[in-house]
Amino acid sequence: MKASFLWFDFTATPAMSMIAIVIVMAMIGSVTVMALAFSLRAGHKTLEEGYHRWYLTRPITAASLAVLFYMTAIVGFLDLTSLQRSSDLVVAAALAALAGLFTDELLSKLRRVLGLLPPTRGAAGKEEGGDGVETK
Q1: Where are the domains of the chain?
Q2: For 17-60, how does the pLDDT look when each residue is reduced to its tens digit (9 = 90+)?
Q3: What is the C-alpha to C-alpha distance for residues 1 and 15, in angstroms, rounded to an integer?
Q4: Taking residues 75-98, what's their average pLDDT?
Q5: What helix, strand, coil percent values describe the chain, rounded to 5?
Q6: 126 touches 135 (CB < 8 A)
Q7: pLDDT, the chain, mean
Q8: How far apart are CA 92 and CA 34, in angstroms?
Q9: Are 127 and 135 in contact (CB under 8 A)?
Protein backbone atom coordinates (compact mmCIF):
# COMPACT_ATOMS: atom_id res chain seq x y z
CA MET A 1 0.00 0.00 0.00
CA LYS A 2 1.44 3.35 -1.01
CA ALA A 3 1.44 6.09 1.60
CA SER A 4 2.90 9.53 2.08
CA PHE A 5 3.83 11.44 5.19
CA LEU A 6 4.80 15.08 4.92
CA TRP A 7 6.95 15.05 1.77
CA PHE A 8 7.97 11.38 1.86
CA ASP A 9 6.36 8.66 -0.21
CA PHE A 10 6.80 5.06 0.91
CA THR A 11 5.20 1.65 0.72
CA ALA A 12 3.58 0.67 4.01
CA THR A 13 4.00 -3.00 4.82
CA PRO A 14 1.83 -4.78 7.41
CA ALA A 15 4.82 -4.89 9.80
CA MET A 16 5.35 -1.12 9.46
CA SER A 17 1.66 -0.53 10.08
CA MET A 18 1.80 -2.65 13.23
CA ILE A 19 4.83 -0.71 14.53
CA ALA A 20 3.00 2.57 13.83
CA ILE A 21 -0.02 1.32 15.81
CA VAL A 22 2.27 0.29 18.68
CA ILE A 23 3.91 3.74 18.74
CA VAL A 24 0.61 5.62 18.64
CA MET A 25 -1.03 3.46 21.32
CA ALA A 26 1.99 3.77 23.64
CA MET A 27 1.93 7.54 23.24
CA ILE A 28 -1.80 7.61 23.99
CA GLY A 29 -1.24 5.58 27.14
CA SER A 30 1.63 7.83 28.18
CA VAL A 31 -0.30 11.05 27.55
CA THR A 32 -3.18 9.62 29.61
CA VAL A 33 -0.88 9.17 32.61
CA MET A 34 0.68 12.60 32.04
CA ALA A 35 -2.74 14.27 31.97
CA LEU A 36 -3.77 12.52 35.17
CA ALA A 37 -0.50 13.45 36.91
CA PHE A 38 -0.72 17.05 35.71
CA SER A 39 -4.33 17.51 36.80
CA LEU A 40 -3.63 15.92 40.19
CA ARG A 41 -0.57 18.12 40.79
CA ALA A 42 -2.31 21.24 39.50
CA GLY A 43 -5.35 20.53 41.69
CA HIS A 44 -3.19 20.15 44.78
CA LYS A 45 -0.89 23.01 43.75
CA THR A 46 2.18 20.74 43.85
CA LEU A 47 3.46 21.31 40.30
CA GLU A 48 7.25 21.28 40.23
CA GLU A 49 9.36 23.40 37.94
CA GLY A 50 11.72 20.69 36.70
CA TYR A 51 8.97 18.42 35.38
CA HIS A 52 8.68 20.10 31.96
CA ARG A 53 11.37 17.71 30.67
CA TRP A 54 9.35 14.76 31.94
CA TYR A 55 6.28 15.98 30.03
CA LEU A 56 8.34 16.27 26.84
CA THR A 57 10.26 13.00 27.02
CA ARG A 58 7.71 10.61 28.54
CA PRO A 59 5.71 9.94 25.31
CA ILE A 60 8.94 9.31 23.40
CA THR A 61 10.21 7.02 26.14
CA ALA A 62 6.89 5.17 26.25
CA ALA A 63 6.85 4.70 22.47
CA SER A 64 10.43 3.45 22.43
CA LEU A 65 9.78 1.09 25.31
CA ALA A 66 6.61 -0.22 23.67
CA VAL A 67 8.43 -0.91 20.40
CA LEU A 68 11.17 -2.76 22.30
CA PHE A 69 8.55 -4.68 24.27
CA TYR A 70 6.65 -5.50 21.08
CA MET A 71 9.77 -6.60 19.23
CA THR A 72 11.06 -8.84 22.01
CA ALA A 73 7.91 -10.31 23.51
CA ILE A 74 5.04 -10.01 21.09
CA VAL A 75 6.69 -10.86 17.78
CA GLY A 76 7.49 -14.29 19.17
CA PHE A 77 3.79 -14.95 19.78
CA LEU A 78 2.22 -13.37 16.71
CA ASP A 79 2.63 -14.65 13.18
CA LEU A 80 4.19 -11.83 11.13
CA THR A 81 2.96 -13.35 7.87
CA SER A 82 -0.67 -12.91 8.92
CA LEU A 83 -0.75 -9.45 10.45
CA GLN A 84 -4.05 -8.80 8.72
CA ARG A 85 -5.91 -10.60 11.51
CA SER A 86 -7.71 -8.10 13.69
CA SER A 87 -6.88 -10.07 16.85
CA ASP A 88 -3.14 -9.50 16.27
CA LEU A 89 -3.76 -5.78 15.92
CA VAL A 90 -5.86 -5.66 19.09
CA VAL A 91 -3.26 -7.57 21.12
CA ALA A 92 -0.40 -5.37 19.89
CA ALA A 93 -2.38 -2.17 20.48
CA ALA A 94 -3.49 -3.21 23.96
CA LEU A 95 0.01 -4.22 25.06
CA ALA A 96 1.49 -1.03 23.65
CA ALA A 97 -1.09 1.06 25.49
CA LEU A 98 -0.29 -0.78 28.72
CA ALA A 99 3.42 -0.16 28.17
CA GLY A 100 2.60 3.53 27.74
CA LEU A 101 0.45 3.59 30.86
CA PHE A 102 3.02 1.82 33.02
CA THR A 103 6.26 3.20 31.55
CA ASP A 104 7.71 4.22 34.92
CA GLU A 105 6.97 0.88 36.55
CA LEU A 106 8.32 -1.06 33.58
CA LEU A 107 11.53 0.99 33.54
CA SER A 108 11.94 0.46 37.28
CA LYS A 109 11.64 -3.32 36.84
CA LEU A 110 14.08 -3.26 33.92
CA ARG A 111 16.59 -1.29 36.00
CA ARG A 112 16.49 -3.98 38.68
CA VAL A 113 16.73 -6.84 36.18
CA LEU A 114 19.72 -5.23 34.45
CA GLY A 115 21.40 -4.36 37.77
CA LEU A 116 21.31 -0.60 37.15
CA LEU A 117 21.27 1.94 39.96
CA PRO A 118 18.09 3.94 40.57
CA PRO A 119 18.15 7.42 38.97
CA THR A 120 18.31 9.03 42.46
CA ARG A 121 21.70 7.43 43.14
CA GLY A 122 24.98 8.82 41.90
CA ALA A 123 27.57 6.79 40.02
CA ALA A 124 29.30 5.91 43.31
CA GLY A 125 26.04 4.43 44.62
CA LYS A 126 25.37 7.23 47.11
CA GLU A 127 21.94 8.82 47.38
CA GLU A 128 21.74 12.26 45.75
CA GLY A 129 19.61 15.08 47.02
CA GLY A 130 17.34 17.14 44.82
CA ASP A 131 20.11 19.66 44.21
CA GLY A 132 22.56 17.08 42.84
CA VAL A 133 24.61 17.00 46.05
CA GLU A 134 25.37 13.50 47.27
CA THR A 135 24.20 12.54 50.73
CA LYS A 136 24.95 9.42 52.77
Answers
A1: 24-117
A2: 888 888 999 999 889 988 888 888 888 888 887 778 888 888 99
A3: 12
A4: 68
A5: 65, 10, 25
A6: yes
A7: 75
A8: 22
A9: yes
Q: Are strands 2-5 and 8-11 parallel, antiparallel or unpaired?
A: antiparallel
Identify residue 39 by its one-letter amino acid code.
Answer: S
Could you tell me how many residues make up the chain? 136
Output the furthest CA–CA distance in the chain (Å, rounded): 59
Is 96 in contact with 22 (CB distance < 8 Å)? Answer: yes
CA 94 to each of CA 12, 46, 56, 97: distance values in angstroms, whole numbers, following the listed order: 22, 32, 23, 5
Rounded CA separation 110/49 (Å): 27
Dihedrals phi, psi of 9, to nearest 5 degrees: -105, 135
Contact yes or no for 92/14 (Cβ under 8 A): no
Give the rounded distance of the alpha carbon of 132 from its chain centre: 26
Whether the full predicted model's pTM is greater than 0.85, yes or no, is no
